[in-house]
Design goal:
This protein is an alpha+beta fold. It has 5 domains: 126 residues, 2-Layer Sandwich (Beta-Lactamase), CATH 3.30.450.20; 102 residues, PAS domain (Beta-Lactamase, 2-Layer Sandwich), CATH 3.30.450.20; 57 residues; 159 residues, Histidine kinase-like ATPase, C-terminal domain (Heat Shock Protein 90); 118 residues, Rossmann fold (3-Layer(aba) Sandwich), CATH 3.40.50.2300. The chain contains 22 helices and 22 strands. The strands form 5 sheets. Strands 2-1-5-4-3 form a 5-stranded antiparallel β-sheet, with helices on both faces. The protein has a 5-stranded antiparallel β-sheet with strand order 7-6-10-9-8, sandwiched between helices. A hairpin with a 5-residue loop joins β1 and β2. α11 packs across α18 and α19 packs parallel to α20. The longest helix has 46 residues. The radius of gyration is 46 Å and the shape is elongated.
Length: 647
């Protein structure tokens, strides 16, 4: 940069510019910086190097012989004055400046300038280091840094030795470790022990091959809790392809994985439930025959006969198997139920005395009902079963005694709750909470706690169907159930049932069973399972009934059309080939309108709905049943003033 002297000498003087010696000229042209030589007296440019021409876009002839102000190199002229003033005090070193190219582009640089003496000429040597690209890079780095600092993903930068050089705020938010605590350490301090040596060996094999590694790992936070992280580790390489840093980017997916696991568990439970419901029909037919023929045989034996005791054992085994089937159907949510509008406070209060006897004196029972608790619609017997099963489960978790609390409350479940609790529904719910101070449950057990036949009790101490039954009942009642527990911290089960705004209906007195089961009426028995049909026909005939037997619905229809005498009852299976029990009953009503109908079925509730059986004024006998139960039901239906009763 030159002084602001007038340029009287003009171009003629430029042509006689000083000539540098060979060493200076070599350095002048070899430099990557922009270099100018100007006359200190006249201010005109005597020479410029090639980088000056390349960066500014000028031709040499257009520059030499002109002043820098004439060329308009300096955007405000004040820059010239400031630097000229500085030169009066001595050389100027590394001053930040802005200069313009021929096209008007603003560029930045660091200027150093000083007077020199060349061949009897006082000159001004100016060197400008172009920092424009560096400024661009710096700006980009600034923007990148801002993005990384504000990112919701944890970012770590490590050296080749594994030491952490940088961590962003998200890392601190996720792990609890501050930047000061992390920098200088190896990331292995986050290890949870959930990944084995093979996992880390594969990770390093990938990185040392210069490839990006992506995977999922479980680490521990500063407070000791575990979190799951989706991690991407990128090896950073120099121009020669040598790795010198690693960048790790981690996304906390702990809650997402919990939600995924809950969804998978719900799907698995649904599958097992369908399987349980699917085998119910055949199993119930078998149990009907086992228990039925066992009872008939027992009635024909003397009480002192050794075979009498054998029959009792057969009947007991059948009853236990039937109980297991009912529990499986409760789990599969295919039990036949009679929902009604309920006050859970009333259900808990009615059970309280029985629960105190059940759990024993060494366990304190506390009930905390909420005033004005919302009503729910559910089967009362099933709700009692839920409470009893949860109380028994709590009792078993407190062998040395403890505290069992049963609480009710109103809760509005929002969308955020539903997102993190698959299967739950938003809206107003009545909540039933059963908590204990027992041993607690570890995470591995929690993942299977509602599965049928899963139990942590020793052999012979439990069937593994208690909590599975609870789960099924709650689901069948359109609710959801969740458990919070840790080893040594007790367990809390929360049941949410949707609020019902239907009016409470008064339940009438239960119909008393008739004293005598004998009769002389005509009964048409339609059952495609030979063993069950034979059992039913023999039991009815033994009590004096006239029995018509049909092994298929088509055979039954033929009998209806050809039989001239009254048929007092149609006792038919619900699901049969060719024609269902409902269609058969409709056919009977057209031919014999006086005939009563009693359905029997080993199928589940959803099958009953599909076949139109679970309707008002419909009688149903659920398999498995015993001959005495069958006879009582037949007599009840025949003696009823009008169709109606148990569904």
């Amino acid at each position: 940069m030159s002084n602001a002297n007038d340029c009287d000498a003009g171009h003629d003087h430029a042509k006689s510019a000083c000539h540098c010696d060979a060493a200076f000229l070599k350095l002048f042209n070899a430099s990557s910086d922009l270099i100018t030589i100007a006359s200190l007296r006249h201010g005109i440019l005597l020479d410029v190097n090639d980088p000056f021409l390349r960066v500014t876009g000028y031709d040499r002839d257009a520059v030499v012989g002109h002043t820098e102000l004439e060329l308009g190199l300096w955007p405000p002229a004040s820059e010239w004055a400031r630097l000229a003033e500085g030169l009066q005090r001595g050389p100027v070193r590394n001053v930040e400046v802005i200069f313009l190219t021929k096209a008007g582009e603003r560029r930045t640089g660091l200027m150093s300038t000083q007077p020199i003496h060349l061949h009897d000429e006082q000159c001004l040597l100016t060197v400008v280091k172009d920092t424009t690209e560096g400024r661009h890079t710096e700006a980009e780095l600034g923007r990148l840094s801002a993005v990384v600092e504000r990112s919701s993903e944890a970012v770590l930068i490590t050296g080749l030795d594994g030491r952490i050089l940088y961590s962003n705020p998200a890392f601190t938010e996720i792990t609890g470790y501050t930047r000061e605590q992390a920098v200088g350490k190896n990331p292995r301090f986050l290890k949870s022990g959930k990944q084995d040596a093979t996992f880390y060996r594969n990770l390093w094999d990938t990185l040392l091959a210069g490839k990006i590694w992506h995977g999922e790992m479980t680490n521990h936070r500063q407070d000791g809790s575990l979190y799951v992280q989706e991690t991407t580790i990128i090896p950073v390489q120099d121009d020669q392809g040598v790795t010198n840093h690693f960048i790790a980017i981690g996304l906390d997916v702990t809650e997402q994985r919990k939600t995924d696991a809950q969804l998978q568990q719900a799907q698995k439970m649904e599958f097992v439930g369908r399987l349980a419901g699917g085998v119910a029909h055949d199993f119930n037919n078998l149990l009907t025959m086992i228990s039925g023929y066992g009872q008939l045989l027992k009635e024909r034996l003397e009480t002192d006969s050794p075979l009498h005791a054998y029959c009792e054992e057969i009947i007991k085994a059948g009853e236990r198997a039937a109980g297991l089937t009912r529990q499986l159907l409760a789990f599969s949510r295919r039990q036949i139920v009679v929902p009604q509008v309920l006050d859970l406070n009333s259900v808990v209060a009615d059970l309280e005395k029985m629960l105190r006897r059940l759990i024993g004196e060494d366990i304190e029972l506390v009930t905390v009902p909420q005033h004005d608790l919302w009503m729910v619609k559910a089967d009362r017997g099933q709700m009692e079963q839920v409470i009893v099963n949860l109380a028994v489960n709590a009792h078993d978790a407190m062998p040395q005694g403890g505290r069992l609390a049963i609480q009710t409350a109103n809760r509005n479940l929002d969308e955020s709750f539903v997102r993190t609790h698959p299967g739950a529904t938003a809206g107003p719910h009545a909540m039933l909470v059963v908590s204990d101070t027992g041993a607690g449950i570890d995470s591995e057990t929690l993942a299977h706690i509602f599965e049928p036949f899963f139990t942590t009790k020793e052999e012979g101490k439990g069937t593994g169907l208690g909590l599975a039954t609870v789960y099924g009942i709650v689901k069948q009642s359109a609710g959801s159930i969740w458990v919070d527990s840790e080893p040594g911290q007790g367990s809390t089960f929360k049941v949410y049932l949707p609020r019902s705004d239907e009016p409470v209906l008064q339940v009438g007195p239960v119909m008393q069973c008739p004293k005598s089961t004998a009769g002389s009426e005509t009964v048409l028995v339609v059952e495609d399972e030979h063993g069950v049909r034979s059992l039913v026909c023999n039991a009815l005939a033994a009590q004096g009934y006239k029995v018509l037997e049909a092994y298929s619905s088509l055979r039954a229809a033929s009998l209806m059309e050809s039989y001239a005498e009254p048929i007092h009852m149609l006792l038919t299976d619900v699901v049969m080939p060719q024609m269902s029990g409902k269609v058969l009953a409709n056919h009977m009503a057209a031919l014999h309108p006086e005939t009563r109908v009693l359905y029997m079925s080993g199928y589940t509730a959803d099958a009953m709905v599909r076949h139109g059986i679970l309707e008002p004024n419909t009688f149903l006998l659920q398999k498995p049943f015993t001959p005495s139960t069958l006879l009582q039901k037949v007599r009840e239906v025949l003696d009823a003033d009008r169709p109606g009763g148990e569904r």
